[in-house]
Design goal:
heterodimer; A: 162 residues; alpha+beta; eight-stranded antiparallel beta sheet; 8 strands; globular; B: 456 residues; Pnp Oxidase, Chain A; 2 domains; 16 helices
């Protein structure tokens, strides 16, 4: 299973929003707020084809970082973390891949999605989605969210990172 | 800040307003790309100076902010609504550099605030990105990858099936008037309803074909469940060719049923009514007449869903024309034209861009609102006047109780005229006005027929 420190897993389990940073065409960092999902090993994010520029960036450069920083979006948990890793875009079938891979995780974190799914006909392109699968490789953790103190750094074993 | 088609707040050179906006966030996330190629991010406190155009960052411990590369500084906000989802979503991203690891000078900004650009509009603005992405993905995978909907939902969306209530009202009223005259055959009544429905669906689809070709649907970034067309071509769910074939098939079905009814009834009047109906339906959006593009859509709809539908249904049963169904037909004719009239309000900007000069494009909001009220009162006046002179049975007066619904729509137009999404409730109320009035008129005719039966 995963190697991320337990407090970081706790953040991932509740986070309604994380800041995903990808590497843009000219090497520029580009950050997108997204809902992160976690299966105990890998982090999953997902993106509608409507907002798919980030997918193009990841396909060109798979290096990403996910920051968990906003206590309001973490159900009051003040801890902060940044997870660096390598991302893979799963997009064989944007219509249904995501349902198979992440819908249960999504429902668990955001039950309201069930109501949106019933209205799929109203916004069909929103539900054409690609999945971003992140394999964590390095983690920085700030207990209590205090970035005035050096973060606790953890790295994946070589096997996991490979 | 203005919005463009590709996003909410387009990338632009930062102004003082951006820094003032950034000040509203509790913290920022500073990101850069490490020497090993990975992005890294850290949250920090900050102070934005709108006058100087800089952001003073609180340097995080043991993570010096690099001075030799571009940084991203993002403020992000969300307000969780447990069990519902979340609202108040907004973010603002600034790009730039720092010379000292603390003072950040942005050179580019980009973001989204759902209070300024609602999520649905943001999504519609992003449709071209979806099309580009799926086209590139198709090329990459060597197979066509397109958005999909189940056949049921696709059929419902493509034909705009729920709007069939607009056909049901005049057709059922025409049949009811005929029945009150002692003429009723259930299976020709059913065929009339099916034929009228197919004609209506054909007109809906034809309208989409021509609105797509004219660019009106593509230009519309604030469609709602009542306005903006089916958008199945805009979303690439259906090809324009497929849509055109569907329109032809539906017109063909309607014409076949119409001709069968002409053959059954032997009424040439019915033939001419059917021909007029299809001609008005096509002329509604198709060149050269393009009636709706000339501000004549309401008149076309009033004629099509009023006299043509109602008199057609009456003639199928009786084989003749009469004043009573004609006068009654003015009521659904006006009310259904008013559905179009109100539904054109949120589309008026994109319609204007596409050269579709509908009445809300041509006239100021006050005139549109007054026009609505006058037309709605006229519809009720037809009922009152028709009953007063004995053309309509007196139980039809019960439909006057629906007048407050029209007044509610009029009031709603005052408040929500400029907000497509909050106007949706008003559009819904306006649709229900036709249903309530139609239902009450139908009930009035049932009462009349029953009373006639009882009194011999």
């Amino acid at each position: 299973m995963g190697w991320l420190p337990e407090p970081v897993e706790r953040l991932l389990d509740v986070a309604l929003v994380g800041e995903l940073t990808v590497v843009g065409r000219n090497g520029r960092p580009i950050t997108h707020p997204l809902i992160p999902l976690y299966d105990g090993e890998r982090i999953y994010l997902h993106s509608s084809t409507l907002f798919s520029k980030k997918l193009e960036h990841i396909k060109r450069d798979a290096h990403v970082a996910l920051a968990l920083t906003d206590p309001i979006a973490m159900k009051g948990n003040p801890d902060r973390a940044t997870v660096q890793g390598t991302a893979r875009v799963i997009e064989e079938d944007p219509h249904s891949d995501w349902e198979r891979l992440i819908l249960d995780l999504w429902r668990k974190k955001e039950p309201a999605i069930n109501d949106f799914l019933k209205a799929r006909v109203a916004l069909p392109l929103f539900f054409e989605r690609a999945v971003i699968e992140i394999t964590p490789e390095r983690c920085l953790f700030w207990a209590g969210g205090d970035t005035d103190r050096a973060p606790v750094e953890t790295r994946a074993s070589r096997e996991v990172a490979a | 800040m203005a919005a463009n088609r590709s996003g909410s707040i387009p990338a632009h050179e930062p102004a003082a307003a951006d820094l003032e906006r950034l000040s509203g966030y509790a913290h920022v996330v500073v990101s850069w790309v490490d020497d090993d190629g990975y992005p890294t991010s850290v949250a920090t406190a900050f102070e934005a100076d709108a006058q100087r155009g800089t952001v003073t960052l609180t340097a995080p411990a043991a993570m010096p902010i690099p001075t030799d590369r571009e940084l991203s500084v993002m403020g992000s906000h969300i307000h969780p609504q447990p069990g519902i989802g979340y609202d108040q979503r907004r973010y603002l991203q600034l790009w730039g550099r720092t010379a000292d690891g603390v003072t950040f000078s942005p050179t580019r900004a980009w973001g989204w605030d759902e209070n300024e650009v609602p999520f649905f509009e943001y999504s519609e603005r992003s449709v071209p990105q979806s099309r580009r992405y799926l086209a590139a993905l198709s090329k990459e995978k060597g197979r066509t990858i397109r958005p999909r909907l189940s056949l049921f939902w696709l059929a419902l969306r493509t034909t705009r099936l729920p709007f069939l209530t607009a056909t049901a009202v005049p057709v059922l009223l025409g049949i009811a008037v005929a029945a009150s005259d002692g003429a009723f055959t259930w299976w020709t009544a059913l065929l009339t309803l099916i034929g009228g429905s197919l004609a209506h669906l054909a007109i809906n689809v034809t309208n989409d074909v021509f609105d797509t070709l004219s660019g009106a649907d593509d230009a519309n970034t604030t469609p709602t469940m009542y306005s903006g067309g089916s958008r199945v071509v805009v979303y690439d769910l259906v090809t324009i060719r497929g849509l055109a074939w569907l329109a032809l098939a539906l017109f063909g079905g309607a014409a076949a049923i119409g001709l069968a009814l002409v053959a059954i009834t032997g009424s040439m009047t019915l033939l001419w009514i059917g021909v007029a109906g299809i001609a008005v339906g096509i002329a509604y959006t198709a060149p050269p007449l393009k009636l709706v593009y000339r501000g004549l859509g309401e008149i076309a709809v009033a004629i099509g869903f009023g006299p043509i539908m109602l008199l057609g249904a009456y003639v199928v049963q009786t084989g003749r024309l009469a004043w009573e169904p004609f006068v009654l037909s003015l009521v659904p004719g006006i009310l259904i034209a008013l559905i179009l009239f109100v539904n054109e309000i949120p589309d008026r900007r994109s319609d204007a861009d596409a050269g579709k000069r509908t009445l809300p494009v041509r006239f100021a909001p006050d005139i549109v609102r007054t026009g609505y009220l006058v037309a709605a009162i006229l519809a009720f006046g037809v009922i009152a006047g028709g009953a007063a002179v004995g053309l309509l049975p007196w139980p039809t007066l019960v439909a006057l109780v629906a007048l407050p619904i029209a007044l509610r729509v009029h009031s709603g137009l005052k408040v929500h005229y400029d907000s497509p999404y909050t106007l949706m409730a008003v559009m819904g109320t306006n649709v229900s006005l036709n249903l309530v009035v139609g239902g009450l008129l139908l009930a009035a005719y049932v009462v009349t027929i029953v009373a006639m039966q009882l009194t011999g």
